[in-house]
Amino acid sequence: MADVEDEEVAAPAEEPEEEVTDLNGAVKGVLKRALQVDGVIRGLHEVCKYIEASKAQVVFLAESCNEATYKKLIQALCTEKNIPMIDVPDNKSLGEWAGLCKIDKDGLPRKVVGASCVCVVDFGEEGEAYNFMMNHLGK
Question: ∠ CA(132), CA(134), CA(139), 5° rounding?
Fold first, then answer.
């Protein structure tokens, strides 16, 4: 039998949190942390279910969504349930931030799928991005 030595496994170094200077950077950071704890819901049907059950904490809606009824539905549900909604300029970037893409070996996103609507049910660890977003929402 071989001698087994106790080896210390180095904990993965935490990534330094990016400096948040605008709302889009805050949205990206919040979605990144929420993805780590499986707190991101994507797609119209799922988002509507979570809004109606009052489980959604914040909703992100892409301004580039070309379906007017889609936007009106999400806006009306958020207003009815008093859930904060943030407009994101591009649905491709929202899809990337929500994890709807493949990451290649260089760490660059490939095959990005657009997302017109995303909600967060669990923020995970609160950080600078979360605080910036809450200040923007006035909470």
Answer: 140
> Cα dihedral sign for 108, 110, 114, 118?
negative
What span, in angstroms and rounded, lies between the C-alpha atoms of 74 and 43? 11
Confirm if 120 and 31 have CB atoms less than 8 A apart.
yes
Measured CA to CA, the distance from residue 20 to residue 131 in angstroms comes to 10
How do residues 67-111 score in pLDDT, each as one tens digit? 888 888 888 888 888 888 888 888 887 887 777 767 767 766 667
In angstroms, rounded to a whole number, what is the distance separating the alpha carbons of residues 54 and 48? 10
Six-digit token string for 1:
């039998």
Strand partners, 62: 88
Tell how strand 102-103 and strand 85-88 pair up. Answer: unpaired
Joined together, the tokens standing for residue 118 give 């995303």
Average pLDDT of 18-47?
79
